[in-house]
């Protein structure tokens, strides 16, 4: 198995516990509660996470060291552990993943899951992922929970490397509100039942596996962005011809994270000045005089100067749910993407009334 | 005179022009238009800024090199220069500062100006400041315009040093939406008419002058934060016992810039979990287990653990316009502050409909 966790210095009890648990490289089950983050709850919080782990292990008749724990919800409230324990004893453990995808939702409006199949070394392999968003989303690690299972045979070390590399271009490239949660994690479990020759080193099979992983993580990441709190739009920012991939990703993330870009898109307003302002405010060195910007394939700025466009065609285009912002930095050959949602009345409403 | 400008790599034409103009260290007038930022407007934009400068110089019968230019408004639209030139010819130049404070407003709801007097070296000295906000406010330089005049006698070099130092704890510590404008600037003009012995070096008089400057800049900065787009609250974050002043300021600014903290305060919701999450997500190394947090002087977290508080008293307290968030890092002796506004329906409305 492999895992990545929030980079927030304030880490929820289940995050702290998992970091110890996964040291042996094996995991067979993950128990998740939603509604209470079990974060900033002191020593009692860590005790509660251990009770969740041990109770689940007992119910499944496996060792506690094989059980991961995740929580999502309000920070700073003591977990009602009696309810959680009672719930674990009532678990349906026949493998109903759809129930799982639904159960972990908080302010999510839609379940997020995907299953793909492919062929590695002549063996049919399957990979499934489930995730939840949908606020406090500014991954690093992604402010979200993601759980991926596969029957591919791969060493834990290589699985960890694949996951750590992958999140840089998938979950870590989504942002809803620029806030980084205390509870983020993505866990991947691979049981090897597909029967392929175990992937132990960088190879064609490893590349193939990484492509599968990227397909799953990117689909889940985009689902999360699309279902951001209060979202009416999915914003997809593509940066081409950057100096480096990191540069391209940073510019894309800065634009998709701008409150002013997000409100403009909610208002179906082609206010591209806010896009170039966000690019200029990023930590990447750019030359504004050579940059091109297009909104849904309609050029709005070329070589740093405004471009006339048909207002009516643009208006119709911005009615769509999916908004594509394309930026050409003309500063190299690297590519990067980021995804997010618009900033809406509903976002404010959801977050102004979250605990009350 | 002295000036500081936006750190955005995309700089509006008037910013580019002023950087050249102020090299001689003298300025006698500033011409400002609102509604159009004259940013990302190419060479024609720079021509327009020069025309504003030259026309104003002609009307005032002074050299063009003594005139500063500022613009604020929508990015990427060509300035209607004929209207601006006609307007300059109709200027009331009898020194009506209140008219000025009003004229430079965009989405500001209130004029922002302050005048203070003090005594330096036995001479009565006066300092006045005028500013406008109120969106795209995440200074560095502050996304705003600020103009300060004084009759203190001080060298340009020392004035520049005082201003550059000062903005780090005043204008650069406010944030409305995390976006950095292309047009920010603060200009200070000192004409020496107070008759004090010219301040030429670090001294008691210089310290006194810096205190005056800080009084003016901080008052204007807080006015801007308080009048942030759609704001119903002024959020004041104080960080005590940080490792360094920079650390304390960074933590304060991270908290006041968190969308989730801002929406919680709009909702009068004491959701302090979002405050500690924002602290943990800052680039400052902290130990969450020793941090205290209080909301309007009511402790909500002590040594990293929740504190019971009277919900009714808290609710009443959060009805106020002014919300004080106090954070004790217990990690040193340094202090820092930051100011901002809540995130409201009205913010979204203003920014979704800005160009249309």
TrEMBL record, chains A, B:
Pathway membership: Amino-acid biosynthesis; L-arginine biosynthesis; L-ornithine and N-acetyl-L-glutamate from L-glutamate and N(2)-acetyl-L-ornithine (cyclic): step 1/1; Amino-acid biosynthesis; L-arginine biosynthesis; N(2)-acetyl-L-ornithine from L-glutamate: step 1/4
Ranges in a coiled coil: none
Enzyme class, UniProt record, top EC level: transferase
Positions with a binding annotation for substrate: 106, 132, 143, 229, 351, 356
SUPFAM superfamilies referenced in this protein's UniProt entry, alphabetically: DmpA/ArgJ-like
Domain of life of the source: Bacteria
Matching InterPro entries: Arg_biosynth_ArgJ, ArgJ-like_dom_sf, ArgJ_beta_C
Enzyme Commission identifier(s): 2.3.1.35, 2.3.1.1
Catalytic activity: N(2)-acetyl-L-ornithine + L-glutamate = N-acetyl-L-glutamate + L-ornithine; L-glutamate + acetyl-CoA = N-acetyl-L-glutamate + CoA + H(+)
Stored CDD domains: OAT
Pfam families assigned to the protein according to its UniProt record, in alphabetical order: ArgJ
Site (Cleavage): 142-143
Site features described as Involved in the stabilization of negative charge on the oxyanion by the formation of the oxyanion hole, chain residue numbers: 72-73
MF terms in GO: L-glutamate N-acetyltransferase activity, acting on acetyl-L-ornithine as donor
Family to which the UniProt record says this protein belongs: Belongs to the ArgJ family.
Protein name (record): Arginine biosynthesis bifunctional protein ArgJ
Underlying gene: argJ
């Amino acid at each position: 198995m492999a895992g990545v966790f929030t980079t927030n210095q304030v880490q929820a009890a289940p995050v702290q516990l998992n970091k110890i648990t996964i040291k042996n490289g094996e995991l067979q089950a993950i128990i998740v509660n939603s509604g209470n983050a079990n974060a900033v709850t002191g020593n009692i919080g860590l005790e509660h996470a251990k009770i969740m782990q041990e109770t689940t292990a007992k119910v499944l008749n496996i060792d506690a060291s094989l059980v991961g724990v995740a929580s999502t919800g309000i920070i700073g409230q003591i977990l009602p552990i009696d309810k959680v324990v009672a719930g674990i004893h009532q678990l349906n453990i026949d493998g109903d993943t759809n129930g799982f995808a639904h159960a972990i939702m908080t302010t999510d409006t839609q379940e997020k899951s995907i299953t793909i199949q492919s062929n590695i070394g002549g063996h049919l392999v399957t990979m499934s992922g489930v995730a939840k968003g949908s606020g406090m989303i500014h991954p690093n690690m992604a402010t979200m929970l993601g759980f991926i299972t596969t029957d591919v045979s791969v060493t834990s070390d290589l699985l960890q490397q694949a996951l750590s590399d992958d999140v840089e271009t998938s979950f870590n490239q989504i942002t809803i509100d620029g806030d980084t949660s205390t509870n983020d994690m993505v866990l991947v479990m691979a049981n090897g039942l597909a029967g392929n020759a175990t992937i132990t080193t960088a190879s064609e099979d490893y590349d193939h596996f990484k492509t599968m992983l990227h397909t799953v993580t990117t689909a889940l990441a985009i689902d999360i962005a699309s279902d951001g709190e209060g979202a009416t739009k999915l914003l997809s920012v593509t940066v081409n011809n950057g100096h480096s991939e990191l540069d391209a990703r940073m510019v894309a993330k800065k634009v998709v994270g701008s409150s002013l870009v997000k409100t403009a898109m909610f208002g179906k307003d082609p206010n591209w000045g806010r896009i170039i302002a966000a690019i200029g405010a990023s930590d990447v060195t750019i030359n504004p005089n050579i940059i091109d910007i297009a909104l849904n394939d309609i050029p709005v700025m070329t070589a740093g100067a405004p471009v006339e466009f048909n207002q009516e065609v643009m208006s119709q285009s911005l009615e769509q749910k999916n908004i594509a912002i394309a930026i050409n930095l003309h500063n190299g050959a690297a590519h990067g993407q980021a995804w997010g949602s618009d900033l809406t009345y509903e976002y404010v409403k959801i977050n102004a009334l979250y605990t009350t």
